[in-house]
Amino acid sequence: MTAPLQDPELVDLRDASVLALVVDSHAASRIGIGVLVHRQPWVSCCLLAADRDEAGQLAVRHKPDVGIFDVTEPGPLVCSYTAPLRAAHPTMPIVLSARCRAASAA
Description:
Layout: E1 18-23, H1 27-38, E2 43-49, H2 52-62, E3 66-70, H3 78-88, E4 94-97
Parallel strand pairs: 1-2, 1-3, 3-4
């Protein structure tokens, strides 16, 4: 049996080195996503924020490795919503998430 090819660009994340930031205005979604993310073996801690202002404060204080943003809410454009994070931590990757609204049968 041959060993799998190793890509030098890949990073081994089994050491719980990632600090994640979840931003969602709905507490149940924010906590649920936070629990799912925190269960990953490479995540050391998961910060939770209810809005962009709180997220910006957490980003300044903790410098998370990745941000996960819910963009379901109506309101400002995503770029203006993520602007405080970009100002606080310009190199942080941001993942956008959205809840699916199920249509009810008539």
